[in-house]
Specification:
The complex is a heterodimer of chains A (about 170) and B (about 450). With about 170 residues, chain A is of the alpha+beta class. Chain A folds into 2 domains: about 90 residues, Alpha-Beta Plaits; about 70 residues, no CATH class. In chain A, strands 2-3-1-4 form a 4-stranded antiparallel β-sheet. In chain A, helix 3 runs antiparallel to helix 4. The longest helix of chain A has 26 residues. Chain A is rod-shaped. Chain B has one domain. The model of chain B has no long low-confidence stretch (mean pLDDT about 90). In chain B, helix 3 packs antiparallel against helix 7. By secondary structure, chain B is mostly helical. The longest helix of chain B is centred in the middle third of the chain and has 34 residues. The chains are: A alpha+beta (about 170), B mainly alpha (about 450). At the A-B interface, strand 2, helix 2, helix 3 and helix 4 of A face helix 1, helix 5, helix 7 and helix 15 of B.
């Protein structure tokens, strides 16, 4: 995972100028943009480059694995410790549905948490953006846009123009 | 979490005028960071903790002497323990209902109460989970409930709802914890960035896992949050259905009924919303949260209370109707015994609390009256406990053979254990309010910035 933090970090007071800047950068062909927002926002999300999340597939796969293993567990148990209750079938599949369902949900949820951490590369306590004291407000009420050094510093003046007049731009100390 | 704006006429806002992301952070963030109303907190926590001590003493005595210290015996082998279990787990269900089902239904009013009620779910499930374990008689062997390859070659009976319950309740507790923690991560980052001392900054920083609000992270996060809500929705229905099946699969008159799973789910949401009201009304008054938990929120919760109350009333009706319609001697006797037998006072009290009292909420101005709503919620809590008590005890104490009839009365230790779990629940809630944001900061910030659901 390449580290995009070393570059120019702009702070915006609200979402609108950030969205405008994002549109300008996208139009100018910039690809390595990091956006930081105090809350999730569908419009900013659409403007942020990057693939759509694949976390749904992880939950789906884990759910299937959980369901199959839960059913196999019960099937194995009924074969290895046979309980004959009133002559009912030993392999009575309808009564195995609840446990199968519960373990499907459990596996999917735990895999979802693990996948979130994996996709976000968290926990990570020491990211370079934290070196900027303004970044304390990224979790509160300010929006940040970071342009990767490779792209930003080739034509610094143009990059600064693309950030727009509302931006408070500083270099990220690495 | 998508923000499809409904084209409904303008309604009373869910957030007071003048709230901005910054006021949200300040008002809600200061509660865990600065500990306002310390006097209230210490008095409340100390009072609740006294009951925790009573719980510890009761459990200690139970471990020393066995379940004989409770009133349970043959024929009533499921006394308070199962009543309390069903009651507590039902309370938990409102939290999941609010955080998952109302999220999927785009009910924006849930945002103000979901974090708090998710915590309520966790703590209620913790209290609920104690009872089956304590009721085992030999609680040190609780792990025999789990499937594992043991030297005796034994496996659990997977056809039994009691085994399903082990899986349902443990899955429910785990998934609720994951859902709650995922929701907390961005808020822990906010607390980290606002923390006044280095120690707090470090602790919240560790707990937030270094969350920095990266938009790509939000993308994964939002998707996961909706998917967890989608998983939690059938989960919550399954958990209380299985609890209902614990009874319904047995042959006993009064238990052997197909209405039980849906009727138990409705009862769970009914009692859970009552508990949400019992807790949020004092909370918003003490911590000045009336611009986040508005009178409109109370009114909406009152409506849910009334609707689920009617579903529960239908369940009672169906039980009596089916016992008459079945033409079965034992079923019919059970109905008569509930209406006029030795436990009739408990039955009529629950009818009063669960059916009659919620009818007050037809009046709009009464739904918006916190004192009245709070009183209704207390009565519904009592009524729903009695409902489970009546279901458990009246069916068991007089079943088929009159020679095996008996009576059940809770002992001192039954009551001290029940009151002890109130203390445990209360103490955990006090600790939660003290150290974590009781209202979701990130979601409220978005609501303040975008004026959602106005």
């Amino acid at each position: 995972m390449s580290d995009h933090a070393q570059g120019l970090l702009a702070m915006y007071e609200s979402a609108e100028p950030l969205k405008a800047a994002l549109r300008r950068f996208r139009a100018a062909g910039f690809g390595r943009l990091q956006v930081y927002s105090p809350y999730s926002d569908d419009e900013i999300d659409e403007l942020t480059p990057g693939r759509p999340t694949r976390i749904g597939w992880v939950l789906f796969a884990a759910g299937i694995v959980g369901a199959v293993s839960a059913y196999l567990l019960q099937w194995y148990a009924c074969r290895n410790y046979t309980l004959n209750v009133g002559g009912r079938p030993i392999h009575s599949w309808p009564s195995y549905i609840p446990v199968t369902f519960e373990l499907t949900v459990l596996s999917a949820a735990l895999a979802g948490l693990a996948a979130l951490l994996w996709f976000c590369r968290l926990p990570r306590l020491d990211h370079p953006v934290f070196n900027d004291p303004r970044f304390l407000r990224a979790s509160q009420d300010r929006f940040f846009l970071c342009v990767d050094a490779d792209e930003a510093l080739t034509d610094r003046q143009r990059t600064l123009e693309l950030f727009g007049p509302e931006a408070d731009v500083r270099e990220v100390p690495s | 979490m998508s923000t499809v704006e409904p084209s409904a006429p303008p309604r009373e806002p869910l957030l007071a005028e003048g709230e901005t992301p910054e006021t949200v952070n300040r008002t809600l963030g200061q509660i865990p960071l600065e500990h306002p109303n310390a006097r209230f907190w210490w008095l409340g926590f100390a009072a609740a903790f006294l009951f925790v001590l009573s719980l510890v003493a009761s459990i200690g005595w139970l471990f020393l002497r066995g379940v004989g210290i409770w009133g349970v015996n043959i024929p009533v082998a499921w006394g308070f323990a199962i009543t309390n279990f069903v009651w507590w787990i039902g309370i938990g269900h409102a939290g999941t209902f609010i955080s998952a089902i109302l999220l999927l239904l785009h009910q924006h009013w849930r945002t103000s109460i979901n974090r708090f009620t998710e915590a309520m779910t966790l703590f209620a499930v913790a209290c609920a989970g104690l009872f089956p374990l304590l009721h085992l008689g030999r609680p040190q062997y609780f792990y025999w409930l789990l499937p594992y390859p043991d030297t005796m070659g034994l496996w659990p009976q997977f056809r039994s709802p009691l085994v399903w319950d082990v899986f349902a309740v443990s899955t429910y507790a785990t998934v609720s914890l994951v859902f709650w923690y995922v929701g907390l991560i961005p808020d822990l980052a906010t607390l980290r960035d606002r923390a006044p001392t280095l120690a707090k900054r470090r602790i919240y920083g560790l707990l937030s896992l270094g969350w920095r609000g990266d938009m790509r992270h939000w993308r994964h996060y939002e998707k996961l949050y909706v998917l967890l809500a989608g998983l939690a929705t059938p989960l919550v229905v399954s958990v209380h259905s299985i609890v209902g099946l614990d009874f319904a699969v047995a042959q006993l008159p009064g238990w052997h009924s197909t209405i039980f799973p849906p009727y138990f789910v409705a009862g769970a949401i009914f009692s859970g919303f009552a508990m949400v009201l019992t807790l949020t009304i004092p909370l918003r008054a003490v911590y000045g949260l009336k611009s986040y938990i508005t009178d409109r929120h109370l009114e909406l919760m009152g409506k849910v209370l009334m609707a689920t109350g009617w579903m529960v009333a239908y369940g009672y009706f169906s039980e009596f109707f089916m016992s008459w319609y079945s033409n079965d001697t034992f079923e019919r006797y059970l109905s008569v015994n509930r209406l006029a037998g030795p436990y009739a006072p408990a039955f009529w009290t629950l009818v009063f609390c669960n059916i009659l009292v919620p009818q007050l909420l037809w009046v709009k101005s009464w739904r918006r009256n916190p004192a009245l709503l709070w009183s209704v919620s207390i009565l519904v809590n009592i009524g729903m406990w009695l409902e489970r008590y009546v279901i458990v005890v009246t069916s068991l104490h007089r079943d088929f053979l009159p020679s095996s009839w008996g009576m059940f009365h809770g002992t001192f230790w039954d009551w001290s254990t029940l009151l002890g779990t109130f203390g445990l629940f209360g103490s955990l809630l006090f600790l939660f309010i003290r150290y974590l944001p009781a209202i979701s900061l990130a979601e409220m910030r978005r609501m303040a910035a975008k004026k959602e659901g106005a």
